Amino acid sequence: MNLKSASRRLCLLSLSALSLALPAAKAQDATPAPAATPALKALAIAKIKATPAILASASGANRKNSIDRMSQALDGQLISAVQQTRKFTVLARSDSDALIEENAASGKTFAFTESDLTLVVTIDDFQDVTQTATFAAIGKTATKRVVRFSTVAKLYETKTNKLVETANFQEQNLDTEELLPASSTDGGELSDSLLLALTRRMSEQIAQRVADVAFPARILAKTGKIVTINRGEGTGIAAGQLWEVFALGAELTDPDTGASLGREEMPVGKVRIQRVTPRTAQGEISGEDLGIDRGAIVRRVAQ
Fold first, then answer.
1. What band does 64 get if pLDDT is binned at 50, 70 and 90?
2. Where in the chain are the domains?
3. Residue 104: left (phi > 0), alpha (psi -120 to 50), or beta?
């Protein structure tokens, strides 16, 4: 073999090796990057307020202090309840004064963090009635207080100011509180236990509704007849509750507006909650299993 032929052969071998290496390199470059971790949506919670008409009525009935205490307590309880859902980065607008003061103390300029969603809650009904019952047979009189209040919660998309969801909530003290004679004339002072019980129940309802709108409860895992749900303590889920399971189907579109209505939901079974942990809950499938699987949506059955 002469020198010219040997050189040509070496060149062909080099090109062949390069052609074999290129697909491998391309395949390596085409390896998909790891999926980004979903980021929590930032939810701004506006300061709780009562409607002007409710404030005027409460003031006229000498119950102004009661409604002020109720709104302030609801504000703190709602922030806590939403945080416990672990579904959002919570921005508590009612704490802005404290944040402004702290930033000023350290020489920084305070600026509100941008939010994805804004939750506005307004107290639109408030009743605080003192009732007196006289028991002639035993010669005694009992004074008790019945408190009822309701709110309207509105969830907005912050960037567009679009109203995403609205809902009404109502709470009242079912176990009426008895008051001492000296306190029955002091203008509607609510005991701490009654106030906290009412505001806690109200805040949990609102937080759960907001979480369900943004992120419906889902099944994380299934082992035999036991399923794990992505709802934990402080989200309204409790042992003994019955939850219905829905498998997701095709996308639905409103024929009149063309707007998306989400995906079709087909009931595939029920789950009885057995145990609740800080972050999740476990339940046992109750009755037929028509296709309960990971990723299915679960909703509490009203009882």
1. confident
2. 41-214, 219-300
3. alpha
